[in-house]
Write a structure and sequence with these properties.
This protein is an alpha+beta fold and 128 residues long. It has two domains: 60 residues, 2,3-Dihydroxybiphenyl 1,2-Dioxygenase, domain 1 (Roll), CATH 3.10.180; 53 residues, Roll (2,3-Dihydroxybiphenyl 1,2-Dioxygenase, domain 1). It has two helices and nine strands; from the N terminus they run E-H-E-E-E-E-H-E-E-E-E. Strands 1, 2, 3, 4, 5, 6, 7, 8 and 9 form a nine-stranded mixed sheet that branches. Strand 2 and strand 3 form a beta hairpin.
């Protein structure tokens, strides 16, 4: 079964400025969720909810610099099996899996081109 992109994140130095930009340019909707300066992004009509995203304050990444670009997370059925495949086919696992309560287990990896990506095994019943 193919694995699908399930989540993306926009990292911003000024969250409210970025929120205004995406609301006005793309018509995205934002819902406060979790810590301050963190919003869920809804990209599609309310009835289908679109692709789920997040707008969040830029944080230091594993290599000590702030994330630039979008973070992408791929939903997988078996995170441990996918991490083994990543290593087998030339990628690098850059974080051990960690739990986001009520959501699932997440790990980050780099592909063969040094693009950083997330792989998430969602909890049963987690609703987007």
């Amino acid at each position: 079964m193919p694995n699908h992109v399930r989540h993306f994140a926009v990292h911003a130095d000024q969250v409210e400025r970025a929120r205004s930009f995406y609301e006005n340019v793309f018509g995205w909707r934002f819902e406060p969720w979790g810590p301050p300066n963190f919003y869920l992004i809804r990209t599609g009509p309310a009835e289908d909810r679109g692709l789920q995203g997040a707008l969040q304050e830029r944080q230091q990444t594993l290599n000590g610099s702030g994330m630039r670009g979008y973070e992408c997370t791929i939903g997988v059925e078996d995170l441990d099996a996918v991490l083994a495949l990543i290593a087998r086919f030339g990628g690098t696992v850059v974080s051990r899996p960690f739990v986001i309560e009520g959501v699932g287990r997440l790990a980050f990896f780099e592909d063969t081109e040094a693009n950083r990506v997330g792989a998430m095994q969602y909890d049963p019943g987690y609703a987007f």
